[in-house]
Amino acid sequence: MAIIGTKEKMALKLELDAGIVDGKQKITSKVFNNVKPTALDDNLHLAATELAGLQNKDLLKVKRVEETLLTEE
Q1: How far is CA 38 from CA 15, 26, 29, 35, 54, in A?
Q2: What is the pTM of this model?
């Protein structure tokens, strides 16, 4: 029995530097949903850096968040 994965949803997540609180790195995030599942990593990263330029906080990480449906063949 084979399992087939089908990408259903994808989001772009930006993790931003919110400073140091009690000696620990504080991170805030912005999530942009309804991203095309076929979007390339290079294009996502470019979009993320452009969006980060509009934020007041520095960009720490860019993440691709995917939701994949697993079904039996």
Answers
A1: 22, 32, 23, 8, 25
A2: 0.84
